[in-house]
Amino acid sequence: MIDLSLLPDGGMAWLDASGPASHLVLSTRIRLARNLSRYPFATRNNLADREAILRDVLQAARETVSLRNALSFRLEGLERIDRQLLHERHLVSKELAGLEEQGVVRPGAALLVQDRIGVMLNEEDHLRLQGLRSGFDLEQAYQDVDRLDDELGQRLPFAFHPEFGYLTSCPTNVGTGLRASVLIHLPGLVLTKEISKVLHGLVQVGLTYRGLYGEGSDFVGNLIQLSNQTTLGKSEQELLDHLGKMVRQVIEYEEQARQVLLRDARTIVEDKIWRAYGMLRHARVLTFEETMQMLSGVRLGVGLGLVDRCGLYALNKLMVHTQPAHLAALEGLRSDDPDMNVRRARLVRALLEDEAGRRGQSP
Amino acid sequence: MRCSQCHEREAVVFLTQIAQDQVIKLHLCERCAAERGVETSASLGKTPVGTFLASMGKGLEAAAALPAGIDPPEACPSCGATLSDFRESGRLGCAACYVTFESALRDLLRRLHGSSRHIGKRYAASGEGAAELPPPSTIQLRTQLRLAVETENFELAAQLRDQLRSLGGDG
């Protein structure tokens, strides 16, 4: 079992709710896709190439400030539950963790991570540099990952074409190779049934959306990742400005929806929020989906100033630790153990009671 | 519908621009659109990759009808990937594929991104030196050492081992 406590804040710094607009935006993530010009892309390279890529990048990373002190994990050597753990912390993609349907880890798949910066190796592209920040903070996240890109680029020959820019395995990522994602909580728009209209509008202006766990995942807990769709023909700054502008717009819509809910259905909304809190405080059996749904209600209550016996960081921690691999690791169970939902409910009760106590509230 | 600029050719680009709070609708033919710097078929997010790949298939058929001598190369000389490999997987084989299949890809990129020209960061393989940072912990060094050994990078492994020893770790 890997020890995630080795990571700074257990790799949770991005969830400490310290960043801008944290009551709505959980985290900002920016990734840059890069490939080394001397090796074929992932679909056509062989084992030796993949090992060589690892070796070259590890050597270069040692010479950078951004990754000099990085922890490194090779995914092949890890148990499935550890790989799932890294995925649940959003440090590696489902693909890199070998958690897709075929369930195989690609040879040479690895992760380097230091503070709020990470690199996935031998994913769809040779390198996927990522910067992760708490709250809505495109600038800082880009600054982090841009510095890493400069540092690695000085030491590694990146595949670059004068017209097409940074070359990637899939043409949808070529150019800047930049995908910026903002993880946002939108219960107001879901409750007022405005969400599909808003998402449709975002697609019209060149953005895309996904659930919490990436492509194809559900909007569990009313959490949605918004990101840029195209990567070519606009500068990094233009892509970030456009996404930023649209996210600010969505934040405004969400705030409006919440005001409408409070004005027109205050009792119903308050009831929903307190039922969610009551359920988490007292339930004896909780599935993960149910937990996420209830956490969304409580988070809304905290955002509206209706719930003060629980903070955002506590909710973020609960969100992370009630995920299957995290819970299983914490409780020493297999993730398919029938006792999981009972343990989850127990953990949630204990954490919320502790949090309420810390905040000087009676239960 | 005729092109709203030349009034001659059929309009294929329907553009809605918002400038200074004014909505401007333009119907342009391919040539006028290109002259105005508008990339054709830039319907962002509307057309899935499958359609682009299918359209590349049409491009290939068209290429087959071309007189001999100007056919695009069948396979990338660097990695051996062909356009049909690309159609199947949606992934290119290597950096050289972008040169080998340049014109087909240019078209595809315009459809995907609304442009084929990168105007962002330029890659430059030189720059300033690294700033000072606190030294890595023994735990960090050990995970790096393990990966270095696994990738048979023995030179780096030896460096890491020495560094661990100097820190009093057991290496």
Major sheet of chain B: order of its strands? Answer: 1-2
Q: Uncertain regions of chain A: pLDDT < 50 for 5+ in a row?
A: none
The dominant shape of chain B is elongated
Q: Largest interface, counted with CB-CB under 8 A?
A: A-B, 67 and 58 residues
User: How much helical structure, as a percent, in the residues of chain B?
Assistant: 40-55%
Strand content of chain A: 5-15%
Mean pLDDT of chain B: 72
Number of helices of chain B: 7
Tell me the structural class of chain B: mainly alpha
Computed over alpha carbons, the radius of gyration of chain A is 21 Å
Cα Rg of chain B:
26 Å
| Count of distinct strands of chain A | 10
What's the total number of strands of chain B?
Answer: 2
- First-last Cα distance of chain B: 75 Å
- Which spans of chain B of ≥5 residues are poorly predicted at pLDDT below 50? 39-48, 61-70, 126-133
Largest sheet of chain A: 8 strands, antiparallel
Topology:
The complex is a heterodimer of chains A (363) and B (171).
Chain A: E1 25-34, H1 47-62, E2 71-74, H2 80-88, E3 110-114, E4 117-121, E5 127-134, H3 138-153, E6 160-161, E7 165-166, E8 178-185, H4 187-191, H5 195-204, E9 207-210, E10 223-228, H6 236-282, H7 288-303, H8 312-321, H9 324-331, H10 340-358
Antiparallel strand pairs in A: 1-5, 1-8, 2-3, 3-4, 4-5, 6-7, 8-10, 9-10
Helix pairs in contact in A: 2-9, 6-7, 7-8
Chain B: E1 13-19, E2 22-28, H1 30-35, H2 49-64, H3 83-89, H4 97-100, H5 102-113, H6 138-150, H7 154-166
Helix pairs in contact in B: 2-3, 2-5, 6-7
